[in-house]
Amino acid sequence: QTGLTALDYGFVNTAATKSDITYIDGDAGILRYRGYPIEQLAKNSSYLEVAWLLIHGELPTADQLGEFDEKIRRHTLLHEDLKHFFSALPHTAHPMAVISSALSALSTYYENAGDPNDPEQVELTTIRLLAKLPVIAGYAHKKALGQAFLYPDNSLSFVDNFLRLNFGNMAEPYEIDPVLSTALEQLLILHADHEQNASTSTVRLVGSTGANLYASVSAGINALSGPLHGGANEAVLEMLGRIRDSGEGVQRFVDRVKNKEDGVKLMGFGHRVYKNYDPRAKIVKESADQVLAQLGISDPLLDLAKELEQIALEDDYFKERRLYPNVDFYTGVIYKAMGFPTRMFTVLFAIGRLPGWIAHWREMNEDPQTKIGRPQQLYMGAAERDLPQR
Ligand code: SDX
């Protein structure tokens, strides 16, 4: 009622979480995983190499990477009974709801699953999650299509195995498309970690109670599903489709955003930390042009996205609020060109972000100093008062 905010009381949340994993400079548009610039990793590394780097803090040796890859391939199969779990869900189920609940269900097949106090369990669960989440995601996609689930093919690389689980079928051999593999590998790397974003903070907070790694990651997936967070890549495609179908034109849409008409936002724009161009968005934008050209696809939604970006970047409303494209603005156009349905876009974000979630959960459990525990609160409610006489 006072109209004052917490900041007026000088309340600054000093309980920042300490971490060694990822560094972001929001003003300079810098992102580094364990000190390595995202631009270098996105162009020269593999997803599993980045996963190892995030989790263990150093780049793997060739032997370490080979063993890591081999272990993951050997753990891709799901317990056969888990298929009954999928058959209980409607084909209209959102894939994010499918994978978050399937992960919780997965933990019931393992004794002492992901126990933070059992180093062997932590290693095994790290491998199991990296190996099985892509399979669960492929099942969620096939479930929505009403198609038969495929078993993983351990002769394929991590990314090719995932592409086959989504686009292969039981009737014919799946032909690997190197364009899709390279593009998806890079997108997974770009999403692998982003310090204390909402879903990672969720994983750390849930894990700080002693909850196991499956439960913590399942909670992180649910946090990611929100349209203001990972769900934005799905929301961007829906926004571009509405602009195209309405015929209202880009400028009219931008004017509606500026006038805050019915709460409409420019999805894929803005960021809690980046008050400059998201370095990941720059890489994705370049990749979108290349992938569509290599696939021989011209998508009017990409042209629409570029027109929207151009108008917004030149408009004072967005400049004053330091709103720039974030990682979600262009990714959907590439995912669509790859053949993924819009509702799978955030699932792809989750697979990318999984190594970061695991790394943060392990860091938090290894160093109690970095536990969030219980966020602080400043009480702004009613002072003490008595019930009316009755
Ligand atoms: C991700 O944290 C992470 O690292 C997340 C992520 C990761 O890798 O994990 O990077 C992934 O979640 C990226 C963000 C994806 N979300 C979207 O694209 C949804 C659209 N963006 C917004 O909802 C918003 O920009 C946020 C929530 C992302 C960030 O909000 P901010 O920077 O805290 O801005 P704010 O909510 O305090 O708003 C400041 C002003 C407001 O206007 P005024 O009230 O001052 O007039 O900017 C406006 C807002 O209305 N604004 C927008 C806008 N974002 C902020 N106006 C129109 N369109 C937008 N997208």
Automatic annotation (TrEMBL):
PROSITE patterns found in the cross-reference section: CITRATE_SYNTHASE
Any one of the GO CC terms: cytoplasm
Example GO BP: tricarboxylic acid cycle
Annotated SUPFAM superfamilies: Citrate synthase (SSF48256)
Matching Gene3D superfamilies: 2.20.28.60, Citrate Synthase, domain 1, Cytochrome P450-Terp, domain 2
InterPro entries for the chain: Citrate_synth-like_lrg_a-sub (IPR016142), Citrate_synth-like_sm_a-sub (IPR016143), Citrate_synthase (IPR002020), Citrate_synthase_AS (IPR019810), Citrate_synthase_bac-typ (IPR024176), Citrate_synthase_sf (IPR036969), Citrate_synthase_typ-I (IPR010953)
Residues the record marks as active site: 271, 328
Residue spans crossing the bilayer: none
Keyword Transferase: yes
Reactions catalysed: oxaloacetate + acetyl-CoA + H2O = citrate + CoA + H(+)
Keyword annotations: Acyltransferase, Transferase, Tricarboxylic acid cycle
Keyword Acyltransferase applies: yes
Domain of life: Bacteria
One Pfam family from the record: Citrate_synt
One GO molecular-function entry: citrate synthase activity
PANTHER family tied to this protein: CITRATE SYNTHASE
Family: Belongs to the citrate synthase family.
Protein name: Citrate synthase
Protein species of origin: Mycetocola manganoxydans
